[in-house]
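Example complex used in Figure S2.
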Amino acid sequence: MNAIIALSLFGISNLFLGFLNNRKILLPATLVFILIALGLNFADWNHEYYWFNNMLKTNNLSVNFVTIILLSTFLVVAISRSFGDDDEHSHPAEYYAILLFSAVGAIMMVTFENLIMLFVGLEILSVSMYVLTGSDKRSLRSNEAALKYFLMGSFATGILLFGVALVYGATSSFDIHGIAQGVAKAKEQMGGAYGPLLYSGVILIMVGLLFKISAAPFHFWTPDVYDGAPSIFTAFMSTVVKTAGVAATYRILSISFPSVYGLWGNPLVYIVCATLIIGNITAVYQQSFKRMLAYSSISHAGYLLITVLAKRPETNSSLLFYSLAYAIATITAFAVLMVVSEAQAKNGKADESFEALNGLANNNPLLAFSLTISMLSLAGIPLTAGFFGKFFVFSDAFSNPSSLFKWILVIAILMSTVGIYYYFKPIIAAYMKKGEVAKIELSPLYKFILILTTTLTILLGLAPDLVKNIF
Amino acid sequence: MNYQPSDFLPILVQLVAALAFIVATMLATHWLGPKRHSVLKDDAFECGIESVGDARTPISVKYFLVAILFVLFDVEIIFMYPWAVNFMGWVKSTSDVAITMFLEMLVFMGLLLLGFIYVIKKGVLTWEK
Amino acid sequence: MQQIPDVIREIPLNYYVWFSAALFCIGIIGVLTRRNAIIIFMSVELMLNSVNLLLVAFSSYKADPAGQIFVFFIMAVAAAEVAVGLAIIVMIYRNIQTIDVGLLNKLKW
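Predicted assembly (709 residues):
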């Protein structure tokens, strides 16, 4: 948990490093900072420990989540290319600092023990993301995305908070274990029924969190925001924010409200089905690669929620594995998208449509190969990490005795076949379509990250037990 | 104490009386006062200086920055109120919790100070460039 | 001197709950129906304030200070949100000279 303190201090020192007039040191410094935080995080391994007067708690599950979050942050920072060294309108020191601060928020969201910390962590993460979404100040698309994200995000926060207040009224506690006791007591007093405070409180908390992880029907902001934000921050949003959001949802639902499963489980079934169907079907119709990735992130939120819903003992490890596989593949896809869309820019505007990828394989075999592997992983084709991610999630759903899960499984499997269709679009564009992409010069770090993520995806696809056993 | 809705009747009476007074005075001045218009009299009054242009023009964004910074640093005061109220209690208690709490407040203020130094170094508060 | 929690407790808890719920709903309706970004933003603040009121009421009825501490955090975070939100709105106003969200339609599915 010293990672939180370290990352906050590193963020501040990053702000002051920005005064040095030497933008070259920012990227390596930030990477080193994240690696130090990652090392500090492992110090908590195998210790169940409460921090800051029972505000946060670390255990192996949280350490694993923090590792995924910091790894994603590391990869995103590594592919940031200093946000354009020559552009006087960019503020790399501030961007890196805000990325570090938002990692702090994400860590608080996966380790919270008190709802105050959930709220503070969520807000640190969200407010940072509002700023980063609008960081391209002169682009109207970025402006619009920032405003939409901000209005929708603060609306969701309001809903979450009202739920928290109602649950506090019903259980007299903000502590997640205290709430669990309060819920059990309230249930006893009401003779098995739920009081109106608890009922609406749980639903509102769930809705507030689902807004943040963009599950349907609360997903309307997602495609616009992901599309309008600068690609590098979209990569961050669709990995770190999603992982932290799902982890927070899982944590509060599984620790505080397991005894009222019927109350949140029933609506969640419909939400999961709607998320899967809307995310996948709408992704088919997209012309823009970036927008397709936004819808794909909605659909992956659906898969992640299946295992939260299934509530099996294996849910922990499935959730971790799926988040890891998804994060790595998504960052690879965005890494390819960023360089290709900039190389194919028309009139100074980055071209993010599928056509920009046409003929990518001719001159840029590495980019095309990484893209292929990441798309296969997102689609869940065997021999990639994504296949085992989906496999573990589906087997969780399958082993749940409730017959409802058979139907969810049917929908999920149908929708992953739909997914195969649109995930193959960029691959086909890169290999089969005629087009010309000039050879793109990549920095050694960029190449290394692409090779690393691609190798990891294949490695996890060949031997999932390597990390599955740790989780 | 238990209040009945009828206990709030005086408030209602007061509300009606207040509204009635406003309406009555407005109507009375409208009817009673003589109406004499002239160019000078209808002019917008601005301390004797001739008024220029529209009042709703965009103003420098620097005002906005200063106002926002004020709000940000001002709100942090609310974390000091509970701390200050309880501090004498900690001092009087035998354990050394007071020292811990003092150090924690120092850290909090230190972080705020770092933010302030950042703001100054960024040149947000230099009014003329 | 009468203690503030006692003053709060002179009104039944139910009234607070209904009043906060009403404020919250007004906020939601404001967010969903208004088109001016600043007014939407004010509606969101109204929602947050209804939460604050509810938390304070619960906190004094339960004689538990945790609820009031939460209110402090909500206030501090809301101030940070205001700073970022107004900055975003100023940025948009500089680019398109309006803050009507209906005119923001560069991104459509």
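The longest helix of chain B spans residues 97-121. The interface with chain C takes residues 1, 3, 61, 64, 68, 71-72, 74-76, 78-79, 82 of chain B (CB under 8 Å).
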